[in-house]
Amino acid sequence: MTFLDHVGGELVLGAETATPSLDVAVLEDDAQDAELLCRKLRQAWTADVRISVFPELLQLERALRRSQPDVVFCDLGLPDADGIEVVERVVSSAGQAPVVVLTGNDDPTIPVLALRSGAQDYLVKDSLVAESLARALRYALARSFADGQIRRIAAELQEVNGELDQYAGIVAHDLRAPVRTARLFADRLKAAIIMGADPIPMTSYLESSLERIESLIERLLRMSTLRNETLDLTIMQLSDVIEAIGVYVLADLEKAEATLEVLHDGTIAADPILFQELVLNMVHNSLKYRHPDRRPEITFSLVQRGETVELTIADNGLGIEPEFRERVFDLFERLDSGQSDGFGFGLAFCRRVADLHAGTLVAAEPPSGEGAAFRLCLPSPDLG
Q1: Can you name the residues that pair with 375 across neighbouring β-strands?
Q2: Are residues 35 and 110 in the same domain?
Q3: How far apart are CA 3 and CA 13, in angstroms?
Q4: What's this model's pTM, rounded to 2 decimal places?
């Protein structure tokens, strides 16, 4: 069976070696050029090579929407497109896959234009040999990986810069108020000492303001270092975690006449300290926003869904309007306009913990139709 019988399909070449197998997409309308490239790939790559050949750009674009190859080779002269337009459209559709341009044109300006349009490399068909093809493959894959790392780092930097903007906002706003208050009480304390009055009340107020500043700074530092947290993944029974937390917040539960209940138990794989902090934040949040006309009830339900476990934490409190269910995770966000104590760290911290565990945390529709509910999805402890 000849290569031409596989145009538009797939062909496996080579043998199993330490070299990784390769998925290649070829955009080439000339059957002889495509067959030549196939032979050179067999010589250049020592492992299996899976090749899909497409004679038209539109066919390749449709295929790339379904799956991404390891590398794309593209000709510049096609029935439905020509020149640098081909490169631009292929690069746009290829995602993370590197694009190598193949052409019979030896115009020196073409390589520059192709690389500027996003191609990783450029090869002239007439001078194509196995060694140059192998080198082009290795370099294209390496550069593509490096580009991907750069994009990932850039995205992380953008996220960090956004958080720094938020930190700057809180330092400029939330820290300013307790600092002003502390300065006021310090002035009053000085005046009381000068006048021979009792300084104890002013000392107490000053200490309270300084404690608030210290607490805010500690939380800022905790959030900034959480990004590099090293996880100690442990398989835990949900009911054991909730029982321990119930003892930890017993005084708060008794004061609010609140209850914690595990409706559906199970195991979860997470860092014990961070997971406990997450649940504690959720419990404190439910107690803070409890409904004035009913006793707080906080429930926990764990179910397995495919390769993830889904933990729903629900309460019968004031609830969250649907339009605010994403906004509550913003750092320093408080929907009650500062009427309650706190800095707006809690849910932002919880989502960060979920992210570190390769999971998700969202505000969901409460099962009972009242109160608030949060759904935490984490990889199943059975995986691996």
Answers
A1: 312, 362
A2: yes
A3: 11
A4: 0.49
